[in-house]
Amino acid sequence: MRTVVGRLSAIERVTAELIATADLMVETRGEGFTEITREVAGFVEQSGGRDGALFAYLRHTSASLTIQENADPDVQTDLTTALRMLAPHDGPWIHTTEGPDDMPAHIKAMLTGVSLHIPVRAGVLGLGTWQGIYLVEHRATPHRREIILQFVGSRW
Amino acid sequence: MRTVVGRLSAIERVTAELIATADLMVETRGEGFTEITREVAGFVEQSGGRDGALFAYLRHTSASLTIQENADPDVQTDLTTALRMLAPHDGPWIHTTEGPDDMPAHIKAMLTGVSLHIPVRAGVLGLGTWQGIYLVEHRATPHRREIILQFVGSRW
Amino acid sequence: MRTVVGRLSAIERVTAELIATADLMVETRGEGFTEITREVAGFVEQSGGRDGALFAYLRHTSASLTIQENADPDVQTDLTTALRMLAPHDGPWIHTTEGPDDMPAHIKAMLTGVSLHIPVRAGVLGLGTWQGIYLVEHRATPHRREIILQFVGSRW
């Protein structure tokens, strides 16, 4: 038998009551990371949500959502470099009509994803100390991006 | 202080009431993308769900679920090419008993994921204009794949 | 018109009532996979949850959560190899103050993700036959990792 690897805390229980939904529009400045932690936290606060989870969904296929380090901006530079290496502009792509940055942008979006959730406790996002929520723009030029935010859980 | 990067819409609130669950069985034709948007939308409609979120979960480790471009089929070809480059058949893999396409399939599934959610408003999936929902088969041969679909939210 | 690609089962409906939340602390042994399926299943059982979904969220940026093959341990070895190839220690990274394994760990976390969900039916996780839930440590040394587990759904 495998040994128990983790230690579980006490369980908190609440009644599911509320689903709150809103759109967040973000203007990007071209390829790179835009932190949206404050905006997402503001939504949770305004929603009246207490305990539950925050769901974020990006309505695009050439940008993505990710949770990443919020301390050293160099990390974001390196993450952008890594994505360029994994999906190079000069790859053997056949979908090239929208420019050399378009197909790599789709590949990056597939690898990093457009949907995520974060737990909420007492109205506060359960992010780790060094975690921030980021919209990652994969296209070279600025774009207007739509995110649907939802809170599912209990009310205050 | 960082400037506010996004603009938040008004928040819609409903009562969480319904969790609806069903299985979707999909026959793939081997490596590549199978669009399941219509089937997922049909589930949401049949579930009686109004506002909330759709959750999809794939019960396999050599295929995955992704949201991607639904306009130009060349994008799917290029995404398949990209995955082959990231997880090549001739990599230094030691798990080779199930064939040269098996371990690359596990790697591709790890990179692209088996769970995702999509917001639902007034019974309609909140997909972006160019987004489709895809089951991505990573094995070379046809497989029967099981997806668990769930709606969490309010009723009509 | 595209043909229908999937077959949908009957839909089960329950009332959303319960959100249960707990922390799972896991001690890793350095780079590699730690299975937490038993711990997550134990949480669902203890939560009193019946039908709904389990949400897991990892509060770190240099480790991740993934669903993967639980049969042959060689798969985990190969997945670790694949991640090393995708995010090599000797890449052109500028964030190097925390050691050569740190920036690759962030890249691996971005590619594999920190949030996932699994459906629950009659208190049982809807995992496929060969699926296990894993915490993937990307740092070279042992770390203490925090996971927030949540059940959203109906009660027994």
Q: How many E-type strands of chain A?
A: 10
Query: Strand content of the residues of chain A, in percent?
Result: 35-45%
Supply the helix-strand structural class of chain A: alpha+beta
pLDDT below 50 for ≥5 consecutive residues: which ranges of chain A?
none
**Rg of chain A (C-alpha, Å):** 18 Å
Instruction: Summarize model confidence as the mean pLDDT of chain A.
Output: 94
Shape of chain A: globular
Q: Can you describe what's shown?
A:
- Three copies of one chain form a homotrimer.
- Chain A has 156 residues and is an alpha+beta fold.
- Chain A is 23% helix and 42% strand.
- Chain A has three helices and ten strands.
- Chain A has helices spanning 37-47, 73-86, 102-112; strands at residues 6-8, 12-15, 18-27, 32-35, 49-58, 63-69, 115-121, 124-125, 131-137, 144-155.
- In chain A, the strands form two sheets. A five-stranded antiparallel sheet of chain A has the order 3-10-5-7-8, with helices on one face. Chain A has a three-stranded antiparallel sheet with strand order 4-9-6, sandwiched between helices.
- In chain A, strand 7 and strand 8 form a beta hairpin.
- The mean pLDDT of chain A is 94.
- At the A-B interface, strand 3, helix 1, strand 5, helix 3 and strand 10 of A face strand 1, strand 2, strand 5, strand 6 and helix 2 of B.
- Strand 1 (6-8) of chain A pairs antiparallel with strand 3 of chain C, so a sheet runs across the interface.
